[in-house]
């Protein structure tokens, strides 16, 4: 753990209005609260724009609609510029980019702040995940619903009829217990015996785990390779005799853990993100050799996948990572222990494009390459960090859930025992302060994000 070079300055307290007094009353209550850091120009993040993306929140910041709301779970995705939060009552909030209807509000209008998905109000949502342009949720009674981009069948509806579904639709998955999203594919966990993991969406690199990339030539007169969309969730045959209990998805790869604590990876193999000491793509689950015998994963293990990396906690809670860790230097071709975090009790972790956040003991720890202040080090802190480093302003707080997107971070903290410290954090009202200051001029090839 590298020591902080400069203490974080407390954010200015909000003006003492009647609304703020009400906020302070909530600060000392029970429950959990969401904090946000990173970009707020959701339509510009990850894209080249004139003047650059504006309005970054470089310190953990409260979001006005969720002040005092008991948030229990957050999610974003390593290629995503939108977010999901679930409260204790199972209400679902979404915000961010919405060009493909991925917020589930029945339109394609961007939302700067968390907004309740009204069409999910009759359900109690307990899990959620986010892809590049789609969102999938799971209810307390095992139903799964999805919304957003469906070009590759990633919504799991069994149909490709509508390329965009801007309102929630049903996934063909029974007894769903959890879900994870890659950029353009989805993996569900289910309690159905023999079908504990199902996948749908883009099969291009074998990330669906069915032993094929479903490639075919779309033109007789020339070579135009296409990958057949897979809209119907299908159980992975390789796991027919096993029970998968954890899953995480990167851009085009998947990490899964079975009930024996064994780790499997498959999909795109570049930069060693599969952990097999080679960069070969894997079209079906392959056992990661490091996590066997005395180093199988315990039941409370954490699993995370970034765009080009993978991570898990193994024996003794030790964090291991593999893949591309930074922009320069050698890639980690097989799982290696992150020694800076040895001895820490890691309870949650998320990975973005090239950044990572963990909640451990009474600290929030972040590191990696940042674009929009998503590491939360504040206006006087460093922009990026090669090594795990505490987010000073949150020191002493109990972090219960984290999420990482492309240039953004979501951090949930327990309000208990923090006194008035939450009241000292800035509250964001949704004004990027950048209206009209930039215009899109160029998208990354293949619309990278």
TrEMBL record:
<feature type="repeat" description="RCC1">
    <location>
        <begin position="142"/>
        <end position="192"/>
    </location>
</feature>
<dbReference type="InterPro" id="IPR009091">
    <property type="entry name" value="RCC1/BLIP-II"/>
</dbReference>
<feature type="region of interest" description="Disordered">
    <location>
        <begin position="1"/>
        <end position="27"/>
    </location>
</feature>
<feature type="repeat" description="RCC1">
    <location>
        <begin position="362"/>
        <end position="415"/>
    </location>
</feature>
<feature type="repeat" description="RCC1">
    <location>
        <begin position="317"/>
        <end position="362"/>
    </location>
</feature>
<dbReference type="Pfam" id="PF00415">
    <property type="entry name" value="RCC1"/>
</dbReference>
<dbReference type="InterPro" id="IPR000408">
    <property type="entry name" value="Reg_chr_condens"/>
</dbReference>
<protein>
    <recommendedName>
        <fullName>Protein RCC2</fullName>
    </recommendedName>
</protein>
<dbReference type="InterPro" id="IPR028641">
    <property type="entry name" value="RCC2"/>
</dbReference>
<feature type="repeat" description="RCC1">
    <location>
        <begin position="195"/>
        <end position="260"/>
    </location>
</feature>
<feature type="compositionally biased region" description="Basic and acidic residues">
    <location>
        <begin position="1"/>
        <end position="11"/>
    </location>
</feature>
<feature type="repeat" description="RCC1">
    <location>
        <begin position="261"/>
        <end position="316"/>
    </location>
</feature>
<feature type="repeat" description="RCC1">
    <location>
        <begin position="90"/>
        <end position="141"/>
    </location>
</feature>
């Amino acid at each position: 753990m590298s020591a902080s070079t400069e203490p974080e300055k407390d954010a200015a307290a909000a003006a003492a209005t009647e609304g703020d007094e009400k906020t302070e009353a909530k600060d000392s209550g029970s429950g959990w609260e969401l904090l946000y850091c990173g970009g707020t120009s959701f339509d510009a993040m990850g894209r080249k724009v004139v003047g650059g993306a504006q309005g970054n929140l470089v310190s953990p910041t409260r979001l006005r609609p969720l002040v005092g709301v008991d948030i229990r779970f957050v999610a974003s995705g390593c290629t995503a510029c939108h977010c999901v939060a679930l409260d204790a009552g199972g209400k679902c909030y979404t915000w961010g980019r919405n060009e493909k209807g991925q917020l589930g509000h029945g339109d394609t209008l961007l939302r700067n702040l968390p907004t309740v998905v009204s069409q999910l109000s009759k359900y109690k949502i307990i899990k959620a995940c986010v892809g590049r342009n789609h969102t999938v949720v799971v209810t307390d009674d095992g139903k799964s619903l999805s919304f957003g981009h469906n070009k590759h069948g990633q919504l799991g509806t069994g149909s490709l009829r509508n390329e965009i579904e801007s309102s929630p639709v049903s996934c063909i998955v029974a007894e769903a217990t959890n879900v994870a999203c890659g950029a353009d594919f989805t993996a569900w966990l289910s309690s159905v015996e023999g079908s504990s993991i199902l996948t749908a969406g883009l099969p291009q690199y074998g990330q669906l785990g069915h032993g094929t990339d479903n490639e075919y030539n779309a033109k007789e007169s020339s070579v135009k390779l296409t990958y057949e969309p897979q809209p119907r969730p299908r159980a992975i045959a390789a796991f027919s005799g096993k029970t998968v209990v954890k899953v995480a998805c990167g851009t085009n790869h998947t990490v899964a853990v079975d009930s024996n604590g064994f780790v499997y990876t498959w999909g795109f193999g570049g930069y060693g993100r599969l952990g097999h000491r080679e960069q070969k793509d894997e079209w079906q689950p392959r056992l990661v050799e490091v996590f066997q015998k005395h180093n199988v994963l315990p039941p409370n293990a954490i699993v995370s996948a970034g765009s080009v990396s993978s991570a898990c906690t193994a024996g003794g809670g030790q964090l291991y990572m593999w893949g591309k860790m930074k922009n320069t230097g050698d890639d980690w071709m097989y799982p290696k222990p992150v020694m800076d975090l040895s001895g820490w009790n890691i309870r949650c972790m998320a990975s973005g494009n090239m950044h990572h956040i963990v909640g451990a003991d009474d600290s929030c720890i972040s590191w990696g390459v940042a674009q929009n202040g998503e590491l939360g080090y504040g206006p006087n802190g460093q922009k990026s960090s090669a090594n795990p480093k505490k987010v000073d302003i949150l020191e002493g707080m109990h972090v219960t859930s984290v999420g990482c997107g492309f240039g953004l971070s979501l951090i949930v903290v327990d309000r208990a025992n923090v006194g008035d410290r939450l009241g000292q954090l800035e509250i964001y009202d949704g004004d990027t302060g950048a209206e009209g200051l930039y215009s899109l001029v160029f998208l990354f090839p293949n619309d990278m994000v």
